[in-house]
Design brief:
This protein is an all-alpha fold and about 70 residues long. The chain is built from three helices and no strands. The chain is rod-shaped and about 60 Å long.
Length: about 70
Amino acid sequence: MNRNLANLLTLAGIASILGSIVIWSTQGGRGSTAEDRAHGERFGIFVGLWAPTFFILANRYNRAALEDRETV
């Protein structure tokens, strides 16, 4: 269970990075006003900030899976 959750969180971290790049490139540089462009850039950065949290949680669940395997 822990191993599957760790893999899912790792994929979520990668998706966050890719989503951040897509949002930033599609909404950040293309907007009718400076406010629209700034909003797209900030939203892209916001989504990218989720990645470290996902990777930290994945690492924790990976360690838990290894500890479970050692105790069995």
